[in-house]
Amino acid sequence: MELLTCCVLLALGCLLYFVVQFVRLMKADADLTLLWAESFGSSPESKLRGSVVWVTGASSGIGEELCYQLVKLGASVVLSARREAELLRVKKKCLEISSLEEKDLLVIPLDLTDLSTHKSATDKVIQHFGRIDILVNNGGRSQRSLFVDTDLNVFQGLMELNYIGTVSITKHVLPHMIERKKGKIVTISSITGLVGVPLSTGYAASKHALQGFFNSLRIELGTYPDIAVINICPGPVQSKVVENACTERFEKSVEAHTDQTYKMPTDRCVRLILVSAANDLKEVWISDQPYLIIYYICQYAPTWGFWILQRSGQKRIQNFKSGIDADSSFAFSKKTS
Questions:
Q1: How far apart are the C-alpha atoms of 17 and 273, rounded to whole Å?
Q2: Coil/strand/helix, residue 144
Q3: In this structure, is the dihedral angle defined by the CA atoms of residues 236, 240, 243 and 248, taken in order, positive or negative?
Q4: Is the pLDDT of residue 289 over 60?
Q5: Angle between helices 84-97 and 61-73 (to 10 degrees)
Q6: Which residues does the annotation mark as catalytic?
Q7: Is the model more confident about 257 or about 58?
Q8: pTM of the model as a whole
Q9: Which of 81-85, 172-176, 255-259, 292-296 is predicted least confidently?
Q10: Do residues 26 and 289 touch, judged by C-beta distance below 8 A?
Q11: E strand residue ranges, 92-246
């Protein structure tokens, strides 16, 4: 009887644990490991204050918000993107919302596809700050077009920008981290780096490439335990990523201003990115429901995941052809930032 009682209690305990975790997951806006770190791990305030952080793609969206939250933490920031005027605008606001001085913020215009400039840009950062504690690989571009309608140069351009450009910057920054035997390489990948997404074949390919590269690099750096390689995989986030996305031609953007209010607020996404960096989490998923549960299904029950993606993918294509945001019909509720 005692054995039977123990087995029953164990079974009830397992069931209770499963129920609690399921409820947590259904209410979650990120993977459970990240949310645990947010509640019980190291805070960005305690770990990132005083760091020198280089953010690419800093002129809008996630990159812009990263700069604002980093300066509020007391981190020095290097702002890079192609549009210098926009970088100066972001820098001005950074100074307004923080106690930092001019010397704590460095603007370096940067084209990720111009590989010949990456070494000199890195040297400027080192010359100004003496070190790079965190590299945030955020620069890149998305895509909204069907493969059969899309020019080959779109795929080439996305790989050169999202993948080769990111690898190149990392190639120049990493030796400085190895010399100091510490640092963090944070790469803003995407959920499309984990699962296939219609209308984004080239974008998904470039993000899959980033996942493979940085997962391999992390292993190579095993002899440097204080150099963290962190992959961030966000789902839909409020930004200009859709209107700036390329279409069937690389030089042509979507430009349509579709409803973004149903997506995760940018400030929430960035806060979770900073928590990930503070706790050296290797890979994180940041997304509202129903996307998050779909990613879990794809991870742990891939056959079911493929079935769900096939059905939802067709709806995504229909939305796009109708001129509305491709993912808008899948949101549970609208968000406000």
A1: 27
A2: coil
A3: negative
A4: yes
A5: 30
A6: 203
A7: 58
A8: 0.91
A9: 255-259
A10: yes
A11: 105-107, 134-137, 183-188, 227-234
Distance CA 217, CA 238 (A): 30
* Side chain identity at residue 199, one-letter code: L
| Lookup: tokens for 129 | 């700050």
Report residue 284 as tokens: 């994180």
Residue 278, classed as helix, strand or coil, is helix
Does pLDDT of 170 surpass 50? Answer: yes
Give the burial string for 282-304 (b: 16+ CB within 10 Å, else e). ebbbbbbbebbebbbbbeeeeee
pLDDT at residue 83 above 80? yes
Token pair 């305030």: residue: 45
3-state DSSP call for residue 231? strand
Query: What's the per-residue H, E or C state across 31-92?
Result: CHHHHHHHHHCCCHHHHCCCCEEEEECCCCHHHHHHHHHHHHHCCEEEEECCCHHHHHHHHH
**pLDDT tens readout for residues 221-238:** 999 999 999 999 999 998
Confidence class of residue 337 from pLDDT cuts 50, 70 and 90?
very low
Q: How far apart are CA 251 and CA 142, in angstroms?
A: 12
Task: Give pLDDT tens digits for 112-126.
Answer: 999 999 999 999 999
Write the CA distances from 275 to 76, 219, 265, integer angstroms. Answer: 17, 22, 16
Tokens of 211: 């996942």
Beta bridge mates, 184: 134, 228
- Which residue type occupies 52? V
- Are the C-beta atoms of 188 and 139 separated by less than 8 Å? no
